[in-house]
Design a protein that fits this description.
Blueprint lengths: L1 E6 L5 H8 L8 E6 L2 H5 L3 E4 L4 H10 L3 H10 L2 E4 L1 H6 E5 L12 E6 L9 E8 L9 E6 L3 E5 L8 E6 L18 H7 L1 E6 L2 E4 L10 H15 L1
Parallel strand pairs: 1-2, 1-3, 3-4, 4-12, 5-6
Antiparallel strand pairs: 6-9, 7-8, 7-10, 10-11, 11-12
The structure holds glutamine (GLN).
Length: 229
């Protein structure tokens, strides 16, 4: 079996644990909560949940987990959701004064709370690919979600693939400043809400808050199990 750790310092970690118990390959998966380096050492893969990225980073620092997490990310599959996606970014915009501690691992720049305060939370049907049953819509739950600003891959980085996007039909509902309708480059990046790079995975929404476990299934099948062979 594979052991998937859920970083359990703050945020929606319990929901992820429940979700992994529902995936099609659940018999091969053991899920543990991670609060210490010893617990992290037992894991084959890790999920960094949604919550507050600054709080999670602060608690990770206080727990002596920052460097062990960075070393883990360099070697093993990691999935960041929402706040976790911010922590996996190489750089961030919209951070508080004094900056924001990141773990890095994915070659992207992300904007904290990027959909703005007017639309702090929304749900939207996503265009998905590479999931099981891709014709079936997936409802993305966005809670003060970050926005992908740029993909910053260099020739030595693994390529990035987009697994889910906000469809153009929902864009007019979202704040105007966030998305320049005339700038196709920025639309291509900013509408991407689930991306994969090598063994790492990122979703700016919360798949653990819906009862559709296809993203959990995807992470196990596509990012975690291939690393175990
Ligand atoms: N806005 C939060 C942050 O900046 C993320 C919100 C979430 O994880 N739902 O960390």
């Amino acid at each position: 079996h594979v052991t998937i750790g859920i970083l359990a310092l703050q945020g929606a970690f319990a929901e992820h644990q429940v979700a992994f118990q529902k995936v099609s390959v659940r018999k091969r998966v053991v899920v543990v909560q991670v609060r210490t380096t010893a617990e992290l050492d037992q894991c084959d893969a890790l999920v960094i949940p949604g919550g507050e990225s600054t709080t999670i980073a602060l608690l990770a620092r206080l727990s002596g987990l920052l460097d062990p997490l960075r070393e883990f990310i360099a070697r093993k599959p990691v999935w960041g959701t929402c706040a976790g996606a911010i922590l996996l970014a190489r750089s961030v915009e919209g951070a508080k004064k004094g900056g924001q501690e990141l773990l890095g691992g994915m070659s992207i720049t992300i904007q904290r709370n990027g959909w703005g305060s007017q639309v702090e939370s929304f749900e939207a049907p996503l265009d998905v690919c590479d999931l099981r049953d891709p014709q079936r819509p997936f409802t993305g739950v966005f809670i003060r979600a970050p926005v992908l600003l740029t993909l910053d891959t260099t020739p030595i980085d693994p390529p990035i693939s987009v697994i889910a996007r906000l469809p153009s039909s929902v864009l007019p509902r979202l704040v105007k400043n966030t998305l320049d309708q005339h700038d196709t480059d920025s639309q291509v990046t900013r509408t991407a809400v689930a991306i994969r790079q090598g063994r790492h995975f990122l979703t700016t929404f919360h798949p653990e808050l819906t009862e559709d476990y296809r993203f959990h299934d995807y992470f196990v099948r596509e990012c975690v199990l291939p690393e175990m062979r």
